[in-house]
Structure formats: C-alpha cells, structure tokens
User: Fold this.
Amino acid sequence: MEKDWYRRMCFYQIWVRSFCDGNGDGIGDLYGVYDKLPYIHSLGVDGIWFSPLYPSPNADYGYDISDYRNIHPEYGDLQQFQKVLQRAHELGLKVIMDLVVNHTSDEHPWFMESRKSKDNPYSDYYIWRDARKGKLPNNWDSLFEGKAWEYVPERDQYYLHLFAKKQPDLNMDNPKVREEVKGIMRFWLDMGVDGFREDVITFISKKAGLPDGLPFLPIANGMPFYKDGPRIHEYLAEFRKVCEDYDCFQLGEGPMTTTKSALSYMTGKHKSLDLMFHFDHMMADCMFTEYIQRPFQLKRLKHAFSKWQYALEGKAWNTLYLENHDHPRIISRYGSENYIRESGTMLAVCYLFLQGTPFIYQGQEIGMTNIRLKSIDQYVDVSSKNNYHTFHLKDSIEKRLARIHASSRDSSRTPMQWDTSANAGFTTGKPWFYVNPNYTRINVERQEQEPDSILNFYRRCLCYRKQSEVALWGTYHEYYRSSGKIYMYDRVWKGKSLLVICSFAEHLISVRFPPKYRQQQGKMILCNYKDSDQENRKLRAFETRVYEYEI
Ligand code: GLC
Ligand code: CA
Assistant:
C-alpha cells in the first residue's frame, strides 16, 4: 500500500441532511447519497467526508451525538451506511467519518447517567465543578451560547460546555473516556471506513484547575487553557495507536491553530495527525468568526495561503478548502454574486492549484450562494441565533439581520440544488429547511448541459490535477504579494512549472508576468473565459488562467 495516499486525493464533503432526500420526508439521507454516488464520482474526487451521520437531537445538527455506533434514523441505518460504503469503495472513493469526541449530546446515555449523582460509573465522564463563591466555576465563555457552565440540581454542580448547552465536554483525563473513544474508532474502522476528520480535536485536553481566562478575549477567553492543552499529545498518541492497525488517516480540525502548533501534530516525535484544517484563510473578511465582519481584503487571503504553503513545504501536507458546513458560501464572501460563474471558477483555481489535499463542499461545485431569510426566526443554527440575540442589540433589525446574512452557517446548509423542479429536486416532500430561491438559475442539471459551467470547470481542474505531477507535488512561490487585485503563484517540479493567475477585480486589469516567465511562451491549460488569447495581458472580471511551462 502506498504511504500517504491521501496526499494525491481530493475530497467531497457531504452534510447529509441537505444533500439529497431519498424517501420523501424532506430530510436528506443515505438513500439519496447512494443514488448520487455516480454524480460524486463524476466530479473526479477520490473520497467523501461525511459530517456526522450518528443519532443526534440536532441541537448542533449532528455535532451533538447521542449514540456513536449507529446511524441517525432520519438518515437510514447501519445497513444502508454499509451499502453506501461498499458502493463508494467499488467506485474507488475513500470514506472518512466525523469523529466528535470533545463533547457528546446531553442526551447521550453517558451524560444522562453522569448527571444523576457524583458516584456512578459515568459521574467522571464529564467536567463537573462546584460553584466558586456562589458563582460559576470560572469565567469561560462558551463559543456558541453564553457562559460555558450549566447547573444541574441533582449534583448541585456545573458541567462545562465549550459549545452549546446541549454539548457537554467529555473529561478526556478519565482513561475510561479515552477507551470509549478508541472503541468508537475501532468500530468504524472495522466496518471499513478509511479515516476520520476529528472535530475540534485540539480542544480535548483542558489545563488542570481550569484557570480564569483573559477578560478581553470575549467568547474565546478560556481558549489559552483548552487549545493545545497540556496532555493533548499524550491523548492523540493513544488514538494514533488504534489507527496504526488500519490503512487509514487522521485529519484534525484545529480552530485558531498556527503553523507552529499544526506542525507539532503533523511532524516530529508527537506526530499524531496526518492533516489539519486551519482557519486562517477564512478570516479575509472577518476576525475570529464570520460574525465579526470587516471588508474583504485579498492581501489577507493571499497572506494566509502563502504562510501555510511556505511553512509546511517539505515538512507536512496542507488541506485546501474554501467552504464547509461552518462557513457561509465563498462566492458571497470573496467573489461576487454579480459574477457567479466567473468568480466561482476563479475561486476554484485559486485554491485547487495550491499544494495539498483539496476539499469541496456540497454545492460549492455549482456556485451556490448565501441565503437571505427575512427574519431571525427562520434561521436554525444555534450559533447564528445566539449571536443575533446577544450582540449589537442597539443596532437596527436590518443591520443585525445583514450580519446574519453574511455570517450564518445556515447559508451553507440550504438544500442542494439539483434541478429546476419543485424544491430544487432535493426532495419530493417538504424540505426541512429553506431552498435558496436562486435554484432555478443555479442547479446541477443546468450546469451539466453547459460546457463552461462552474461544475464542468471543477471537473476540468480536478482532472488536470490528478494527472499532473507538478500540480500535485510542485513547490509553491507567490508573486506580487502586495497586489490587492491579483493573486499569482507558481508551482515548480522536475523541470515543469505551473503559473496560476487569479483576478479578484470586477473590472479590466493588466497583468505583468514575473520576469522568469516573460521570455518563453507557456501553454495555457485553463481559463474561465472562452475566447481568451493567451498572449493578452488584460484580465477581465475575475478572470483566471493557468499556464504550463517547461523550465
Ligand atoms: C466543529 C464543527 C462544527 C461544530 C463544532 C462543535 O467546529 O465543524 O460544525 O458546531 O465543532 O462540534
Ligand atoms: Ca429522507
């Protein structure tokens, strides 16, 4: 078996509830996924990452798990999952599962037992503390909902929840909890899955004593005491051992992670993760979370991309993504809804040609955009609702709603737009959530028929990547770093190079090629305008080109 096979792959992320409804109850499920496997395969991806499919009360849509060894009845059952897994494997697609072990649902049997008393087999599965001088155990904020502590009268104690109230944090310092995690991993690996995307895995070890956080870091005030905590490497080493018995890989989500801390997980004596998701390039129009907005600046995006490309070169491997279930749609953020096709294709190039393993989120490949609902009551995401009801309360309703329009995770969770029939072909029933009304223009069926659609452009990019050594392995160098309109980089590998040019401007701009590429003529292998003359040095709105050179 090839070591590090995940390095030449590209993944498609499925958030199943909104992907495709196979049985007409309005909720996406594994019957729908099964039917769409040929479509997924046709994109040219090599694997699927499933956001959580497990039973869940859906306080955080699957990230609050009440049974780790089963499938949510709304999505199917274990048998249907195995059918999907088998067919995916037959098509050459790897499958990775979400492993959410920083917390469970408060409806998980462990927590239901734990909350009953201080001396039952599960009482130490979670992080319980007494009140401190009649107040909360410490000053930490939850990342989703108010303070990080919730009182339970039966124990006369508080439990810690870094996320929603219905997501109590597990006590990873308890060896029994770690055994549970390993058991869960083995359960899915034995079934044949190929790896895990490990949810907020860098948060699982909390500093002993849970010290008060810095008051000037709202929401994240406790983070210095739970991010990359003191025993994290020890715990991850235990989990890594399980994976060593299987041909699988581990991808850790690292909110706010730095290149230095990411390298500590992916290299050296503590190597415990193969890949990591960082968030740096998601901050080009916001700070810390999409809710705290600032105008998009290309320089910030380029800086983040370059920082990670340079830092990991020769040491570790990048993950590449622009969208997932936690972020609003990228065209609405870094592109333009007036130039959906142009900016959607340009954005595809800008990240798919970097060095790393790309992830494409459902709907991104057809250029889906943000939804703008009229009232906050129509939104369902716990963090959006909480932000709306907690911050900027003096602003007008319009202003507050505009912030939600720009930031809500619900924008990436609207039903997938398959065709122009009712409900975008997502369901024959009543969809569980609003379909973006632009589905009549933006849908898979239509883009299948248009050779230059975003969908077919993604296919071309992936097809090229797959057979190109330089696109896969080439080293990265950025040009014109100070340009606020153009992102340009090259990749170099064994006598070949790729020059990637992306315009983020809505108007015509001229481009200068780097000196290295002025003398000889490259071969233009991709462009998002039909009639592009490769000698032309003017770029139209969101134009992108990729040139291949022999050097
Ligand atoms: C991760 C998930 C997100 C979830 C959170 C808590 O960031 O991607 O969807 O809400 O963890 O589990
Ligand atoms: Ca269904």
Observations:
- The chain is about 25% helix and 15% strand.
- Residues 60, 63, 100, 163, 199-200, 253, 325-326 surround alpha-D-glucopyranose (ligand 1) (CB under 6 Å).
- The two ends are 33 Å apart (CA to CA).
- The mean pLDDT is 97.
